[in-house]
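Repro:
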Amino acid sequence: MKKFKVGILGATGTVGQRFVTLLEGHPWFEVTVLAASKSSAGKTYEEAVKKRWTLPKGIPEDVKNIVLKDAIEDFKEISQNVDFVFCAINLAKSDTIELEKRYAKCECPVISNNSANRMSSDVPMILPEVNPDHARIIDYQKKRLGTKRGFIAVKPNCSLQCYVPAIFPLLPLGLKSVNVCTCQAISGAGKTFKDFPEILDNLIPYIPGEEEKSQLEPLKIFGKIENGKIVSEGSLKISAMCFRAPISDGHTAAVFAGFKNKVYESTILEKWKNYKNPIKSLNLPSAPGDFLTYFEEEDRPQIKLDRNLQKGMGISLGRLKADVSGNIKFVSMSHNTIRGAAGGAILLAELLCKMRYI
């Protein structure tokens, strides 16, 4: 099989580094272009990241000597030399929207880790095991952009990926409300303990923009395509509070789910166990063998024990109980820079390749 040539925009940052390591030896994708800011352009990848490498696994040998491009200025050259790009560049929202559109209009598909285009009505925001059918909106987007190959597709916010997979199978049970509190790792802010000393022995009860994303993005994921737009789910209400916690990797959510009528724990466990994963038969390289895993132990899931479940792509669930208010409560957890960021974007790219959008 001929491999797809892949570029990574924002390759020197935390998520960019994760893209580089996860794509090492990938059976479908070959990293041929790395790009970052103007200050890094012209350096080899190893020169640019050696002093700020954040991952326990070292820099892959096959990318060390790739000379970095300027992600903004060199967009035409990059677009001509790859089949698609992953975008993890750190820019203001308006600048990100413009940059991703620029690549798409150069007939270069963009698989984005950024939030800038997530709520655009004809940009699919896909969690592959939940809403792969939203890829159909790409046809409408290409008409708007005037492109044949170029488009933008995004993965959801890292925090909601730990609990949205758990609540989606419950929608047919009459799910009407979700109250969620997340404890989010510092890698979600691109930090390590070395450069984030104020998080030690601390819990920060606010992450800018995070609660809004947690409340709105799932409704788009659960929505439907109507008249060339994705219309968000209108009946479900989600309320979120998001905390930055002294954890290196892994986001955990405490979820309280309300239903129109009484629902028993056994019914929910059955829904999780028998969830029909719509992409299971596609044999995508990054897809976990088991999407949802429920732990019977009272003290699971735990960050240290379970964040690398299914190579970091699995969703861990536990502590399912009826609440005194009549709601159902549970805990869910996932790896934020693998499933929640680079790994989720790679899985999305695999899906779009299989569906022949790339």
